[in-house]
Amino acid sequence: MTYPQTSPNTLRLLWVYSGSLAKSLDSATWLKTTAELRRLGWQVTLVAAGASGIQQIHGVEVLCIPQPNIYFLRQAVFHFRVLGYIFTHFTAIDIILFHEVSALWLLPLRLLRFFARRRNPILVMDTRSLPMDSLLHEGWKDRIRRYFYFWVSWLGNHFADGRLAITQRMAAAVQIPKHKLWGHWPSGAEPEHFLKAQSERRWSLPSDSIHLIYHGSLHYERNLMALSRAVVLANTKGMSFVLTLIGDGNQKEELQTFAAHTQGCIQVLPLVAYEEIPQFLAFSHVGVLPFPDEEKYQVCSPIKLFEYLAAGLPILATRVVCHSDVLGSAEYVFWAETSNEDGLLDALQQVWKSHAQLSKMGQQASASATLWTWAASAQKLSAALQKGCQTISPL
Question: What is the pLDDT of residues 181-239, one digit of tens each?
Fold first, then answer.
């Protein structure tokens, strides 16, 4: 891999992602932040699953390591191959940044470091989300993942050199000790990527329908059925909304069945590539975030929120702290005070009454997006890693 000119004191970071970044819905977290860290002068080797060798994924160099498609075994094989790479480059790595799935295999490197009498590589575990599956729809694999998650989180609290989290609320939720917490860095967006959505949008006239959009996981716990029912009910009351749901998940089939009987006001579309998201946002007027007020959402930093802002969309959101911490008293947001059908219907009525103001609200949303970029997130991550490394005692 090639990197910008760096100073002799530049830290060398190995960042391990245990899945395929070519397929991940939130791949921008790793790809865009890596690109920004490299612009800051970091030497970053981003490792992910994929066809062997260095690949260009959305314009970012990634070292891909093959991963078999066998449950659990795929992670073991992938991480043993990652360990092989680490052993080969052991003296050329200053920090290994990883997530819960990788902890079981990477935390034992502390023993190797001890016997080699080396300070590096420093092991840092980053937490981006809590288990998201609803207990009502949880299968045995989901249950295993949930137990595994909290077990390795405990391991990280005790054996990682440092920990990071997506938000301060997340750090508290997983009980990261104060002396282990190096910092937190939220999600973001790439404003330039969404300029097309702003330039190509045609705002609806008072006689036109208002187009709502949601893109992401179509899981039961995302509360999308309640939103869909609220849209249908709003239309029976003289309003006119079209809701487009884009993605994949365990409730997709149920949503499609419901949508088939709504005369087109609910549309369920397949997952689209990151590059195609702006063109769908361009045909929309309001971005929706209908999440319920549960801990797994209270502690998160949803990427789609920042992408809606970057695309110049007003927001309809439930009053969950992951939304209110970002949006505050912004004039371009329509709040649903509850996540049930009634609360979402009330928010839709607010949107309909503000039909003529949506364009202005979109401009305000776009202006605020400059505060929530991947560049800003990368600067927070860089500062946290640099500051944390200074707390690690030399041998």
Answer: 999 999 999 999 999 999 999 998 888 999 999 999 999 999 999 999 999 999 999 99
Range of the domain at 30: 12-188+374-389
Of 169, 171, 188, 150, the residue nearest 298 (C-alpha): 169
Output the pLDDT for position 130: 81
Distance from C-alpha of 368 to C-alpha of 71, rounded to nearest angstrom? 42
What residue type is assigned to position 128 of the chain?
Answer: R
What DSSP assignment string belongs to 9-59? T--EEEEE--S-TTT-TTTHHHHHHHHHHHHTT-EEEEEEESSSEEEEETT
What 3-state DSSP class applies to 340? coil
Kindly state whether residues 165 and 244 are assigned to the same domain: no
Residue 16: per-residue pLDDT = 98
Question: What pLDDT sits at residue 140?
Answer: 61
- Structure-block tokens of residue 230: 């609220």
Tokens of 336: 């649903």
Number of independent structural domains in the chain: 2
Question: How many CB atoms sit inside 10 A of residue 45's CB?
Answer: 21
Radius of gyration in angstroms for the set of CA atoms belonging to the chain, rounded to a whole number: 22
Residue 259: alpha-carbon gap to chain centroid = 27
Q: Give the domain CATH number at 259.
A: 3.40.50.2000
Residues of the chain with pLDDT under 50: 1-8
What does the alpha-carbon distance between residue 311 and residue 292 come to, in Å, rounded to a whole number?
24
Integer angstrom CA distances of residue 298 from 140, 286, 293? 25, 22, 7
CA-based torsion, 305, 275, 130, 55: positive or negative: negative
Per-residue pLDDT tens digits for 8-57: 358 899 999 999 998 887 899 999 999 999 999 999 999 999 999 999 99
The answer on 196 and 127 residing in a single domain is no
- What does residue 351 show for φ and ψ, rounded to 5 degrees? -60, -45
Are both 160 and 224 inside the same structural domain?
Answer: no
